[in-house]
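If your schedule permits, I should be very grateful for your opinion on a structural question. Kindly check, if you would, that the fold set down in the tokens agrees with what the sequence suggests. Thank you for your consideration; the sequence and its tokens are set out here:
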Amino acid sequence: MTIMDPVCEREIDDVEYPEQAEYNDRIYYFCSLDHYQEFLKHPEKYAKEEYGEPVKQQSR
């Protein structure tokens, strides 16, 4: 699966980046702190389903 930064729309090679945000039950990854902060300011602008991964639900 390809991970994309929703702000710059570029592929992220290393998903170990600490910058990630959860929005509408999806996790978004970012290639920089600046992109992460921009996403937090305007998540509705950048939160596209094709860029986020579903949040894994824990089993009960």
User: Anything to note?
Assistant: The chain has a mean pLDDT of 87. The beta strands are 3-4, 11-12, 20-23, 26-29, 53-54. The first strand starts at residue 3 and ends at 4. Residues 3-54 form one domain.
